[in-house]
Design a protein that fits this description.
The chain is α/β, with parallel strands linked by helices. It folds into 2 domains: about 130 residues, Aspartate Aminotransferase, domain 1, CATH 3.90.1150.10; about 240 residues, Type I PLP-dependent aspartate aminotransferase-like (Major domain) (Aspartate Aminotransferase, domain 2). Helices cover about 40% and strands about 15% of the residues. The protein contains 14 helices and 12 strands. It has a 7-stranded mixed beta sheet with strand order 2-8-7-6-5-3-4, sandwiched between helices. Helix 7 links the parallel strand 6 and strand 7. InterPro entries: Aminotrans_V_dom, Aminotrans_V_PyrdxlP_BS, Cysteine_dSase, PyrdxlP-dep_Trfase, PyrdxlP-dep_Trfase_major, PyrdxlP-dep_Trfase_small. Its EC number is 2.8.1.7. Its cofactor is pyridoxal 5'-phosphate. Keywords: Iron, Iron-sulfur, Metal-binding, Pyridoxal phosphate, Transferase. Belongs to the class-V pyridoxal-phosphate-dependent aminotransferase family. NifS/IscS subfamily.
Length: about 375
């Protein structure tokens, strides 16, 4: 059976060119980038070149990029780093109810340490109200963390508006862009973002690598202690092969960005059109506009999501009921709870499909046709 992978929001396969770069770098540039001999300098050069490319992808400066082990560490560094560095100025943080758990659980820990966190609600489209943010801002607010694009329903928050609003406030502005990076264009200067988190494995790069953009002049307290790597911001020998491969993945994404966006939008249309032809009743969870092009979350009445996912798996289709980080949990999606309420039917009948590398239009059609036949069994 040829499987159809429609769970790219969870993780993505490495692109062939990226894998080749990764394997080559592990073999050729094995030096420690902190060493002053030739082999170390060679690794340092590759690291610096990769960092510059990563910075350019969001219109930042290379000195504003801190390499991390992925999106979770980048989120944690932004949140804990800000909280501990600025706690003498205030202990109030603002975030949303639909953030990734790397943000939510970090904020919950800070609450246990005496910080005050405001969780902004969202509407039925998964979007915050900018006026709620205005009302929540206080003199002691030190950080606002609002994700760029939601990993479950794809809603894109008004990041530019938030950035404009915070120009007159001292709070740092962080956005978790893990799901949006490489899928939509990002300019940190236009958005007035201070901190931005990114992960490689969402864009066909290797797992275990990412970065945090930190605007020049911002003070964060380091989370790791040891060597003086990453300009004393993140101790630990740099994973040069992974960073170089990450940069290659970014290069490929940037090269084909507009084409990719158009393709994903078309696949969404084809997919839903085929479901309609198959007599499937469904509702799209999330906004019609201001949505990530590759994420499609559907509520299918009278189905049970767990049964449905098993049936999809047996038919060779990989999909998800929500965040991959809560896979296997019987708890409902916190994102859908925030959007619809704790007793809404969407909590038990919603499935996320997400498109990416190696998918074809024919796969999308085949998957929708298979799903049309599966749904009666899942009711």
């Amino acid at each position: 059976m040829t499987r159809i992978y429609l769970d790219h929001a969870a993780t993505t396969p490495m692109a062939k060119d990226v894998l080749n770069v990764f394997m080559n770098e592990m073999n050729s540039d094995y030096g420690n980038a902190s060493s002053i001999h030739h082999t170390g300098r060679s690794a340092r050069k590759k690291l610096d070149e990769a960092r510059t490319l990563l910075a350019n992808s969001i219109h930042a400066h290379e000195n504003e990029i801190t390499i991390t082990s992925g999106g979770t560490e980048a989120d944690n560094y932004a949140i804990f780093g800000t909280a501990y560095a600025r706690k003498h100025e205030g202990k109030h943080i603002i975030t949303t109810t639909i953030e990734h758990h790397a943000v939510l659980h970090a904020c919950e820990q800070l609450e246990r340490e005496g910080f005050d966190v405001t969780y902004l609600p969202v509407n039925a489209d998964g979007l915050i109200d900018i006026n709620d943010l205005k009302k929540s801002l206080r003199e002691d607010t030190i950080l606002v963390s609002v994700m760029y694009g939601n990993n479950e329903v794809g809603s894109i928050q008004p990041i530019g508006q938030i950035g404009e609003l915070l120009q007159d406030h001292t709070a740092y502005f962080h956005t978790d862009a893990v799901q949006a990076y490489g899928v939509v264009p990002i300019n940190v200067n236009d958005l007035h973002v201070d901190l931005l988190s990114v992960s490689s494995h969402k864009i066909n790069g290797p797992k275990g690598i990412g970065f945090l953009y930190q605007r020049k002049g911002l003070l964060l307290k380091p989370l790791f202690y040891g060597g003086q790597q990453e300009r004393k911001k993140r101790a630990g020998t740099e994973n040069v092969p992974a960073v170089v491969a990450f940069a290659k993945a970014v290069e490929l994404k940037q090269l084909h960005l507009e084409e990719t966006i158009s393709q994903y939008k078309k696949w969404k249309h084809v997919f839903t059109e085929q479901l309609q032809k198959g007599g499937v009743q469904f509702k799209v969870n999330g906004p019609k506009d201001n949505v990530l092009p590759h994420v499609l979350n559907l509520s299918i009445p009278q189905t049970d999501v767990e049964t449905f996912l098993v049936q999809l798996d047996l038919a060779g289709i990989d999909a998800s009921s929500g965040s991959a980080c809560t896979a296997g949990s019987i708890d409902p999606s916190h994102v859908l709870v925030a959007m619809y309420g704790e007793k809404s039917p969407e909590l038990r009948n919603s499935v996320r499909f997400s498109f990416g590398l190696n998918n074809t239009e024919q796969q999308v059609i085949d998957a929708a046709q298979k799903i049309s036949k599966i749904i009666p069994k899942a009711k």
